[in-house]
Specification:
Low-confidence stretches: 129-158
Shape: globular
CATH class: Alpha Beta
Number of domains: 1
Radius of gyration: 16 Å
Distance between the termini: 24 Å
CATH superfamily: Nucleoside Triphosphate Pyrophosphohydrolase
Largest sheet: 8 strands, mixed
Number of strands: 8
CATH topology: Nucleoside Triphosphate Pyrophosphohydrolase
Order of helices and strands: EEEEHEEEHE
CATH architecture: Alpha-Beta Complex
Number of helices: 2
Strand content: 25-35%
Helix content: 10-25%
Mean pLDDT: 79
Length: 158
């Protein structure tokens, strides 16, 4: 990463994340790819389903899109060369760890290309709705699970 001679401004900065919405069709139903968050005490939403994504690493990530592509591959094993930026959302209430902004990317991929890595804590879930266009998809994606599978509620930011 290129460094400049200018010092960074001395004021609080928001957490910066990317989230990826991968859609695919399976059995004539639109599906969304989700990951299971860790159950650890340090996770703000333990055990919940979420969109794949994560924090931008300013030392490694050359762009938001590059970060989104590598987070998708890292968390699900899904590799794609195409993502489209959907939008950006942020607020003081979005993440309990602090003021955060997320940059959301999406793609519609053929089901055959959404092959999850063995052991990945990820899965396809029937898509029900995206919700209000003024709120982040990570706060609005609803999942409708097959009978017998407990409801997981809303999907939270990664």
């Amino acid at each position: 990463m290129t460094k400049t001679a200018f010092p960074a401004p001395n004021y609080p900065r928001p957490l910066t994340t990317v989230d990826v919405v991968i859609f695919t069709a399976l059995e004539e139903q639109l599906q969304v790819l989700l990951v299971k968050r860790p159950d650890g005490p340090k996770d703000p939403f333990p055990g919940r389903w979420a969109l794949p994504g994560g924090f931008v690493d300013v030392e490694k990530d050359q762009s938001l899109e590059a970060c989104a592509l590598h987070k998708l591959k890292e968390k699900t094993g899904v590799d794609t060369s195409y993502l489209e930026q959907l939008g950006s959302w942020g607020s003081a209430e979005r993440d309990p760890r602090g003021w955060s902004a997320t940059h959301v990317y999406f793609a519609l991929l053929p089901h055959a290309s959404v092959q999850l890595e063995r052991g990945a804590k990820a899965g396809l879930r029937p898509h029900r709705y995206l919700g209000d266009r003024h709120r982040a998809p990570t706060q609005q994606v609803g999942v409708q699970l097959p009978a017998g599978v407990p409801a997981v509620g809303r999907v939270h930011a990664t």
